[in-house]
Amino acid sequence: MRMIPVQPIVKPSAFGRTRWRCAGTLLLLALVAACATTQPAETGVKERAQARWDAVLAKDYDAAYTFYSPGYRSAHSRVDFEIYLRTRRVRWTSAEVQEASCEADVCTVETRMGYAVAGAVPGVPVWKSKRKLKETWVRTQGQWWFLPED
Fold this sequence. Notes:
Blueprint: H1 14-37, H2 41-57, H3 61-65, H4 70-75, H5 78-86, E1 90-103, E2 106-121, E3 124-140, E4 143-147
């Protein structure tokens, strides 16, 4: 009887498996870290929009002015901005940013606004109401800026 030589079974080395596990773990950790530090555009713009309205309602015009786009600020002085807000017939009484929808570097932010108008209706000293307001925000150099319609 003739014997057939048997080849020994080669087992993968423990070193090879460890190397792949280590690489996989590092890749997973990198992905988790990237997700943890990246916030959706909607979250960032909603926070800035609410902060701008909080400043306007508090009559902190210096802070409110800083949220406006660089183009707006180059065309409107800080003093003109304050005069515009102080002389409006409509007085904002509350603001709650509700949602934002973004495409690339432009977001539309929807805010529920409370407001009062003095002498708007004969016989009514102050007329109060609420409405939804849509605003445009643009991202320039990594920062969100309010872009007014005028």
